[in-house]
From TrEMBL:
Coiled coil: none
Gene Ontology MF, one: protein-L-isoaspartate (D-aspartate) O-methyltransferase activity
Similarity section: Belongs to the methyltransferase superfamily. L-isoaspartyl/D-aspartyl protein methyltransferase family.
Lineage summary: Bacteria, Bacillati, Actinomycetota, Actinomycetes, Kitasatosporales
Name by which UniProt lists this protein: Protein-L-isoaspartate O-methyltransferase
Gene3D superfamilies referenced in this protein's UniProt entry, alphabetically: Vaccinia Virus protein VP39 (3.40.50.150)
This protein's record includes keyword Cytoplasm: yes
EC nos: 2.1.1.77
InterPro entries: PCMT, SAM-dependent_MTases_sf
Length: 387
């Protein structure tokens, strides 16, 4: 018995209802299109999950074993949520950070739709094999010979290869650095990244045919959720717009350390935009270009107040929360800033510039990438570069 099997009766009883409810929900929401539903029906997610997965609980990630907690395991397997499948790159004794996961099914469906594949003619390069589920969906639609998937972690690559084989799928699974693509299999009609990148590698552009598409999540510190769809043009240029949010773990080469924050340097202020406004997609896209070195996280507190936390790599930090609203403007704020740089002041200045532009929507921002790796963020027109 391997990591993705159980008794036939147990499997049939537990997964079919969960699977149907998930797909019906994805279809009803519009995330799962009719042309991709047959692949999702034929490729159940649980067959690509390990026996031990993790959920986030008090104090960090808590393991969930299929044998010990079958009810919780199956609920997680078929929830429209990412499922953490590895901590600390698979090493023991680490800090307990998630380093690999099975992506949220609605996001998987939306990104596959963004690829705009036909019915078997395109060749696809996937960056970030992970569990192998996404590759299996592609193979069902396109065939084994038309899918290449690259994974940097050798243990994940091997486990995915085994899971794919158990499911009767056999794409080319390559152990290597996804940033380099896989030139031996080029050219490709489509490139799909299931990890986020600071910069779209030029190799992906160079390995894609003119007219081909590249769908990739971007991250900078301030926003780890910008999905872009690029079309490759003649002359080795790829261009497209931001199409939505898409949080993924970063390409391993893009992981960057940060210095600790000195809490003794706190200073208080009470000016700036409503924290709820700066977490909207439009401003996040603006900040992606203008505030690339600030990390932003946020959560809603009692009364619907949104609190944001900002951190910099130099040990700077800030937190801001509104206490009530006044019309369409911002309510009273409580802001604390720490460390050598005043991060909230930078956010406030960026907000004023964003307002002066008329608060553009996320879809008004775009990206240009060349085959030598040059990358430009623009607003409304490729000629108007903002970052």
């Amino acid at each position: 018995m391997n990591a993705v099997t159980g008794t036939a009766a147990d499997t049939a009883q537990r997964w079919q209802g969960h699977h149907r409810r998930l797909l019906d929900g994805l279809s009803a929401s519009g995330a799962l299109t009719p042309d991709w539903r047959p692949s999702f029906e034929a490729v159940p997610r649980h067959r690509f999950l390990p026996e031990r997965i993790w959920r986030y609980g008090a104090g960090g990630y808590v393991p969930v074993h299929r044998a010990g907690e079958p009810g919780t395991w199956w609920e997680l397997a078929y929830a429209d949520e990412p499922v953490v499948t590895q901590l600390d790159d698979g090493t023991a004794g680490g800090p307990g950070e998630a380093t690999s996961s099975s992506s949220m099914p609605s996001l998987v469906a939306r990104m596959l739709a963004e690829l705009e594949v036909g019915h078997g003619g395109e060749r696809v390069l996937e960056i970030g094999t992970g569990t192998g589920w996404n590759a299996a969906l592609l193979v069902h639609r396109l065939g084994d010979a038309r899918v290449v998937t690259v994974e940097v972690d050798p243990s994940l690559a091997e486990r995915a290869r085994q899971a794919l084989a158990s499911a009767g799928r056999a794409p080319r699974v390559v152990w290597g650095d996804g940033a380099a693509g896989w030139a031996r299999g080029a050219p490709y009609d489509r490139v799909l990244a299931t990890c986020s990148v600071l910069r779209v590698p030029g190799a992906w552009v160079a390995q894609t045919v003119p007219g081909g598409r590249i769908v990739v999540p971007l991250h900078r510190d301030v926003w780890s959720g910008g999905l872009v769809s690029l079309t490759v043009q003649d002359g080795g240029l790829a261009q497209g717009t931001f199409t939505g949010r898409a949080w993924f773990m970063p390409l391993r080469a893009d992981r960057l350390p940060s210095l600790p924050v000195d809490s003794a340097t706190g200073r208080r202020s009470a000016t700036g935009p409503d924290p709820a406004r700066i977490t909207e997609p439009g401003f996040c896209a603006w900040a992606f270009a203008r505030l690339p070195d600030i990390t932003m996280t946020y959560a809603d507190e009692d009364g619907g107040v949104r609190r944001v936390w900002l951190t910099g790599r130099d040990g700077s930090a800030a937190t801001a929360a509104g206490y009530g609203r006044t019309g369409d403007g911002c309510g009273p704020l409580e802001v604390w800033q720490y460390g050598p740089a005043s991060l909230w002041d930078r956010v406030e200045a960026a907000w004023r510039a964003y307002e002066a532009e008329g608060c553009p929507r996320q879809g008004e921002f775009g990206l240009t990438v060349t085959r030598d790796g040059r990358q430009e963020i623009w607003l409304r027109d490729p000629g108007r570069v903002i970052g």
